[in-house]
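ARCHIVE CARD
SHELF: 3
SLOT: left
DATA:
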Amino acid sequence: MAIAPRIAAALIVAVFTAGALAQERRIDELMRKSGIWQHLGQVQAAARLGAEEAREQAKANPRPNDLTPAQHARMVAAMDKAFAPERLRAAMRTALLKELSPADEGEVLEWLSTDLGTRITRLEEQRDTAEQQSKMEREAPKVLESLPKERLAKYERLAESIQAGESSANTIINVTTAIAYGIAIASPHGDVAMVKSIREQMEAQRPQMVAALAQRSIAIFAYTYQPLTDEELEKYVAFAESPAGKRYHDATTRALDRVLAQASLDMGRDFGAKPLEIDRRS
């Protein structure tokens, strides 16, 4: 009878759909327990703050190519749309489902659910606000200078295990060029060749960027994880150096880089798509 294959097919679809939804719910759990969920919720505000700081600097030291008020407002609107928290979280969820295996997901969730894993996430989330970020930028260098060699060595191992300098440099280069490319392809007179030049210039500076960003990451670790004992910090570093820990950090780094680059490209497209005549009339 024809009905039997149809029932079987429906059951297969139902089973696979249920499995996919269960996996997606675990990714959401991982994102929340790791702090990724909150971090992505702060990107929009951080980008807006950076734009406003740049605007104030431009007012204090005006240059011929500064954005007009209309251009600035349009850029902020494009930024708000591209970096909207739920948009970034949905993209990150999709990316992590592709990048992170179910086995590694389970092992990472086990770590994140421990008392120590939970505490570390809370420490990282506490520094996410603009106020705490400013405080960290002021105080982290002093904390780093005061560290005993043994403690510093742990932070250096942590930075090396997650390739902090290289991944940060990748993100900066990819986000910068994605915004420029988006503007170039959306603008009537956009220059795509200029984007290639921007990337080449940044790539030429990659070694210096990697070194500086690795050192900055170590200072951030030193500031953020002050409450941890040496034993607790060693456990965290050991997890980061484990095969599952390395695969997890690699997966989240690749996923975050892709998500932010795509959002930056969308922002550039949105900003560059409006006719320049609007700015001239403003």
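SLOT: right
DATA:
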Amino acid sequence: MDQNKYYKTSSFYLSAFLSAKGFILNGIEKDSFKARFVFVNSNKLQRLIGIFSFGKNDHPDLMVNFKEVEQAIKKLKSLIYDKQ
């Protein structure tokens, strides 16, 4: 498997942001200590990660529809706490 094909993060809020921006969560890897969220890697994804991590608070690409964020948070939490 090409390791550069996927981006993995344990950051819950980054994952919620990316989901709200329309990136599809490809999977979740869980162990007894943490969850890693897996997205298909792309230049656009990397650009938004940089803006999320280091951009100014008023950067236009940080703006999201809060209902999308709310839905992303609910989905991520259900995936984390799902026992299956």
